[in-house]
Fold this protein.
Amino acid sequence: MRTSPFLACIGLLLLPLAATAEPQFAWSSLLDSGALLEDNGRVVVAHVSGDAVVAGVSHDGIGGSDILVRRLAAKDGAPVWTRRIPAFDTSNMSVADVAWDEAGDLIVAGHVLGCVG
């Protein structure tokens, strides 16, 4: 079953401080692994620079769905970096949450859906 592309138009929506002003859409970013492969963004957190860090699942066409984490530039949505945490065998990975620790390191929590081993 085809799901929406990862980061399916994850974008920066600029919300004005005044309640009467219209919000403005700044940019969007799209990652699509290909036909019939799962790609979904699940969690978005802000980096201290204002960049968006998005975590979700992405299928690379081999085995199951992987966890994929991308940092997107606040200015234009361009990828700053991407990290893939691969699935085991044909099991699927799922991301549960993403947070920054006191040292400024990114913590990604997730789990394996299915049997490993």
About this structure: The two ends are 26 Å apart (CA to CA). Residues 6-113 form one domain. DSSP finds no helices and eight strands in the chain.
